[in-house]
Design goal:
Jelly Rolls, Endonuclease I-creI, nine-stranded mixed beta sheet
C-alpha cells in the first residue's frame, strides 16, 4: 500500500501506486506508451493508418491506456484541475492524460470520447484470419475513476440526467481484505460506504477496418472496437476477424468495473496498464475450430461467448442467438433444433451494453457441457521472429496519417 498526497496536502491511504509513463513493471515483449504519436482520440484506425508498432505473431505488448474521463471538453479538458477538484494531488494525475488533453485534436461534436492506443501491425495477419488477443495482465494506473451520465444518454434517456445537467461521479479505490473495491457514498458529500469489487477490463479492443475512413469510437461492430464485454478480464481471450493486412490492432476505454448493461452511459472508467498477447489464427484453423466467425468471439476459462450487435436490442439478441447456433453446429456438429433447445435450457444471454449506439448481447456457452465431444483447437501461426520497437516504426503526424 502506498500513501497518496491529496490536493489539500494531507495523506490518504491507497492500495494502488501511480503508474506514470515508464514507471513500474512492463512485462510484455514490447511497451507502448500513450503519446500524441501513438493514440487516436474519438476515432478508430482504418487501413490507411500507419502502424506505431510491428510485432510477430505470438508476441505480447504492454500498453499504457488512458481513460477519457477527466480529459473531455465538458470536464474542462484539464485533468490536473478536474481531479484536483476531487482532492487528487498533481503528482497523482497521469502525465500522458495531461499531454493528450492538451495536444491531441478531437472534434467534440463529431468524434467519440475514447482514447485508443495503436495500431499494432501483427505480421502474417490477413483478411479471413482471426486475431487472437489474450489478456495477460490488467493493472490499475491510479487509485480512482469516474462514472458518468451525460448529454441525455444512457438507458433512461429523457429521465436522467435531470434537466440539462451532466453528472460525473468520482469514485476512489479502497482495499478491503486484500481486494480492491470502488467506493461511493449514499448521498453527495458523505463518506463512501458503498463498496463494489473491481474487475478491470478493456472496453475497446479491435482491428482496423478496410478503406480510408476511420470509424467513430463509440459503436462496436465486426471489427470489435467498443464492445464493452466485462468478461474480458485477465486470463481471457478475444478473437476478431482480421479485415486488413497486419490486423492493425488497438486498445482503449479502460474500465475498473462495469455491470452488464452499463446503463448510466459509462462504468467505472479509469486508466490501466494492459499486457496483451497477439496471435494470428489462419483462416483454415479458425474455421475448423469455430466455423465462420463474423464478429467478436470471447473465450474465458469456462465459456465460449459469441456476440450479437445491432442498434435495436431485440435484433442484437436475435443476432447473438444465430451466432450461438452457428458456433454449436460448426464446433460440435449439433443439429440446429437441438442447439436451439440447448441454448434455451443451459445458456445465459447477457446484455453487454445498451449505451453505445449499437447495443450488444453476449451468450455464455459452457465448454464443460461438451467435454465428451471432439473438437478442434485454433492453431496459431508460427512466430515470424523478433519485431521492431515502436521507435523504429512510422509515427503519426498531427492529422493522424503517416509522418
Amino acid at each position: 500500500m502506498t500513501s497518496l498526497p491529496t490536493a489539500g496536502g494531507t495523506q490518504a491511504s491507497t492500495p494502488v501506486p501511480i503508474l506514470q509513463p515508464g514507471v513500474g513493471a512492463t512485462p510484455g515483449d514490447h511497451y507502448l506508451r500513450a503519446t500524441p504519436e501513438t493514440v487516436l482520440w474519438g476515432r478508430l484506425p482504418c487501413a490507411g493508418d500507419a502502424p506505431v508498432l510491428e510485432i510477430a505473431s505470438g508476441e505480447s505488448v504492454t500498453f499504457d491506456t488512458v481513460s477519457h474521463e477527466g480529459i473531455l471538453d465538458d470536464q474542462g479538458k484539464d485533468p490536473a484541475a478536474y481531479f484536483a477538484a476531487h482532492g487528487v494531488a498533481p503528482e497523482a494525475v497521469l502525465d500522458d492524460a495531461i499531454e493528450i488533453a492538451a495536444s491531441v485534436s478531437r472534434d467534440p461534436f463529431a468524434d467519440g470520447p475514447h482514447v485508443v492506443v495503436g495500431p499494432v501491425h501483427v505480421r502474417g495477419a490477413k483478411p479471413g484470419d482471426l486475431l487472437k488477443i489474450t489478456v495477460e495482465t490488467l493493472v490499475p494506473r491510479v487509485p480512482y475513476g469516474v462514472i458518468s451520465n451525460r448529454h441525455g444518454k444512457g438507458a433512461l434517456v429523457g429521465e436522467l440526467p435531470r434537466g440539462e445537467h451532466n453528472v460525473s461521479v468520482f469514485a476512489a479505490v479502497a482495499e478491503r481484505d486484500g481486494a480492491l473495491y470502488g467506493t461511493l457514498p449514499l448521498v453527495d458529500g458523505a463518506e463512501p460506504v458503498v463498496a463494489f469489487p473491481l474487475a478491470p477490463f478493456l472496453g475497446t479492443m479491435g482491428v482496423a477496418v478496410a478503406g480510408e475512413e476511420r470509424p467513430h469510437s463509440v459503436p462496436p461492430g465486426t471489427h470489435g472496437g467498443n464492445i464493452d464485454i466485462n468478461l474480458l478480464v485477465e486470463g481471457t481471450t478475444l478473437f476478431l476477424p482480421v479485415q486488413v493486412e497486419g490486423a492493425l490492432a488497438y486498445v482503449g476505454d479502460p474500465h475498473f468495473a462495469q455491470g452488464d448493461g452499463e446503463v448510466a452511459l459509462t462504468a467505472l472508467e479509469a486508466s490501466l496498464r494492459a499486457t496483451l498477447r497477439f496471435e494470428v489464427i489462419p483462416a483454415d484453423s479458425a474455421r475448423a475450430a469455430f466455423g465462420e466467425v463474423t464478429g467478436p468471439l470471447v473465450r474465458t476459462p469456462d465459456y465460449l461467448v459469441p456476440t450479437g450487435m445491432d442498434p435495436d436490442l431485440d435484433a442484437a439478441m436475435r443476432a447473438c442467438v444465430r451466432a450461438s447456433l452457428s458456433l454449436l453446429g460448426s464446433r460440435w456438429g449439433m443439429d440446429e433444433h437441438l442447439a436451439y433447445a440447448y441454448l434455451s435450457a443451459a445458456t445465459d444471454f447477457d446484455i453487454s451494453q445498451v449505451v453505445d449506439i449499437v447495443s450488444g448481447v453476449h451468450a455464455r456457452i459452457r465448454e464443460a457441457d461438451f467435454a465428451g465431444v471432439p473438437s478442434a483447437e485454433p492453431e496459431p501461426l508460427a512466430s515470424t521472429g523478433s519485431s521492431a520497437p515502436a521507435s523504429e516504426t512510422p509515427a503519426r503526424d498531427d492529422e493522424g496519417g503517416a509522418a
